[in-house]
Automatic annotation (TrEMBL), chain A:
Source organism of this protein record: Liquidambar formosana (Formosan gum)
Xref: Gene3D superfamilies: 3.40.50.2300
Modified residue annotations for 4-aspartylphosphate: D64
PANTHER family in UniProt: TWO-COMPONENT RESPONSE REGULATOR, TWO-COMPONENT RESPONSE REGULATOR ARR22
Record GO biological process: phosphorelay signal transduction system
Name of the featured protein: Response regulatory domain-containing protein
TrEMBL record, chain B:
Positions where Phosphohistidine occurs in the chain: H79
Protein known as: Histidine-containing phosphotransfer protein
Organism this protein belongs to: Liquidambar formosana (Formosan gum)
Pfam family, any one: Hpt
Gene3D superfamilies per record: HPT domain
Length: 132, 177
């Protein structure tokens, strides 16, 4: 029995980590794995968009703000334009409220300073549990 | 030196990192993620940081050699480096990053160069300290801890009935013997 399993479908929750920082990738991967998520990592927004375009499904996306090739805001806009309803949480090392609001405007469900803590991930899981 | 003494030394060394301002709360967050499934997690993350940040430091060094200085580019590189340093709780390094970025905003090239030298010093000091710490921790071996039954986490009734295992130590009672 694993946390993050949908009772009706017996499917594990899946999370996509979109970040070009290998340290953040590792921290978020271990954090989410501990909470029972399957995780996949991509290094830029384009790879995230391509994954969804290919039919991949995720319950949660952790989207870094600044990435090469395609950044977080652009990737988020594209995913929402494609009709993706998955919870997308922005992660950024920019702490200014104005910068976070600008990222939220791209279509995020939430935005936090990275790295995320266990408490924040837990609060996101509560939201996911309510929305399933 | 018996095992308990080595453990005490390791604990004292660890505490000194916080007392002397080398590390902050974020390092504790990393420690909370270490367990039997990821027994060397903290050391792995720190190793990854030092490996990856070599590239970031090189970018900044190259940008500082240009004339005239491109302060936007310097700021961008340092923002990345600061973010990475924050992830492992490198408090003094992070502080130097902040100072550097202030000098970038002010267009002060000399300030940038001076701060960068200090940053590299702090970066190297922390690396040496952590290498010694991890080596001692490995020699000491794992410390025995016992856990009382974990309290229930109010997440979501449907999900919670399937919840097993890990809860951050803030929500967990532990004692050692």
């Amino acid at each position: 029995m694993v946390f993050g399993t949908s009772a009706s479908t017996q499917r594990k929750f899946r999370a996509l980590i979109a970040d070009d920082d290998p340290v953040i990738q590792k921290i978020h991967k271990v954090l989410l794995n501990k909470l029972g998520f399957e995780t996949q990592v991509v290094v830029n927004g384009k790879e995230a968009v391509d994954l969804f375009r290919s039919g991949a499904f995720f319950n949660l996306v952790l989207m870094d703000m600044e990435m090469p090739i395609m950044d977080g805001p652009q990737a988020t806009r594209e995913l929402r334009a494609m009709g993706v309803k998955t919870m997308i949480v922005g992660v950024t090392s920019r702490a200014l409220e104005s910068e976070k609001q600008a990222f939220m405007g791209a279509g995020l469900d939430d935005c936090h300073v990275k790295p995320l803590s266990a408490e924040i991930i837990t609060s996101l899981l509560k939201k996911l549990g309510k929305n399933k | 030196m018996d095992r308990n003494q080595v453990h005490r030394q390791v604990a004292l060394m660890r505490q000194s990192f916080f007392d002397q301002g080398f590390l902050d709360e974020q390092f504790i967050q990393l420690e909370e993620l270490q367990d039997e499934a990821n027994p060397n997690f903290v050391e792995e993350v720190v190793t990854l940081y030092y490996r990856d940040s070599t590239r970031l430091i090189l970018n900044i060094e190259q940008a500082l050699e240009k004339s005239p200085l491109d302060f936007n580019k310097l700021d961008c590189h340092m923002h990345q480096f600061k973010g990475s340093s924050s992830s492992i709780g490198a408090k003094k390094v992070k502080s130097e990053c902040t100072q550097f970025r202030e000098y970038c905003k002010a267009g002060n090239g000399e300030g940038c160069m001076r701060t960068f030298q200090q940053l590299k010093k702090e970066y190297a000091i922390l690396k040496k300290k952590l290498e010694t710490y991890f080596q001692m921790a490995r020699q000491a071996g794992p410390k025995e801890i016992a856990c009382r039954p974990k309290p229930k986490l109010d997440i979501c009734p449907d999900l919670e009935k399937n919840y097993v295992g890990w809860i951050p130590s803030r929500f967990r009672y532990t004692f050692s013997f």
